[in-house]
Q: What sequence folds into this?
């Protein structure tokens, strides 16, 4: 391939790669305790992209969390996970912020104070889950409205699972209670050129 002219004088270019290929999507309904994507990571793709939108929780003071697994057995330790959030008030002033760490899962943002707000949205890149000789890494962003929409949370999340296993699964769950009845989460493979 490469670039150059075709036989009729038209330019041609190689595929730039980096295309997202949808692997699986779940619409959240019925207040589940966990949304699991089993068997989504394989040798087909080296890296993955996950996006969630319109997510709410059935309980007050819940955080979105995530774990990685092998053959539906999810790891509950070995994470090096941090999150850093900034809170911004409706009037444009800073309302503080939080940070946190976990060794038992990835943390996506601070507590959502009021239940049934369908305003949590996130994305995350998952790096090399299918290479057993390397740790799986994750980096992402989260944004959510708090209380009655008086301020928002914008945060970053990053971490690694230190286990040197070939990861096949990812799940998402609230830190307390169940999901509410709205939202969706989609997993994409990133196609390389």
A:
């Amino acid at each position: 391939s490469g670039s150059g002219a075709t036989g009729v004088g038209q330019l041609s270019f190689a595929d730039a790669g980096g295309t997202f290929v949808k692997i699986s999507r779940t619409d959240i309904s019925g207040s589940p305790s966990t949304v699991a994507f089993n068997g989504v990571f394989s040798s087909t793709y080296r890296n993955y992209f996950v996006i969630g939108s319109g997510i709410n929780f059935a309980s007050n003071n819940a955080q979105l969390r995530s774990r990685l697994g092998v053959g539906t057995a999810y790891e509950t330790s070995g994470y090096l996970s941090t999150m850093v959030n900034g809170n911004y008030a409706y009037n444009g002033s800073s309302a503080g912020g939080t940070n946190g760490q976990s060794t038992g899962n990835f943390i996506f943002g601070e507590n959502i104070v009021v239940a049934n707000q369908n305003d949590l949205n996130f994305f995350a890149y998952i790096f090399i889950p299918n290479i057993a000789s390397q740790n799986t890494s994750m980096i992402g962003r989260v944004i959510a409205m708090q209380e009655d929409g008086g301020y928002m949370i914008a945060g970053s999340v990053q971490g690694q699972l230190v286990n040197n296993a070939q990861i096949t699964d990812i799940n998402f769950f609230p830190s307390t209670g169940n999901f509410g009845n709205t939202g969706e989460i989609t997993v994409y493979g990133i196609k390389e050129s």
About this structure: The chain has no helices and 15 strands. The two ends are 11 Å apart (CA to CA). The mean pLDDT is 84. The first strand starts at residue 4 and ends at 5.
